[in-house]
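Entry 14. Structure prediction run on the chain below.
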Amino acid sequence: MDWTNIVVAGLAFAGSAYGSYKSKDKIMALMEYRLKELEKKQDKHNNLIDRVYGLEKNCATCTEKIKVANHRIEDLEDKVN
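Output returned:
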């Protein structure tokens, strides 16, 4: 074997190892970016769920207040008649 073949093989190995390392870094950066975007979407969804829960609670309270007011109006109408 000629020493130039060994040098060329070594350079090819070094180039391929460097390329693999750089591509891994880019893939990891992309995955981190996508994960952060997914977390933002999840936070928005959780915020929406909290707001809907608050609206449902408020709606139940208003419904109960309307029932009480209607009952009081009926009692007052019965007293008048």
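The chain has one helix and no strands.
Filed with the rest of this week's runs.
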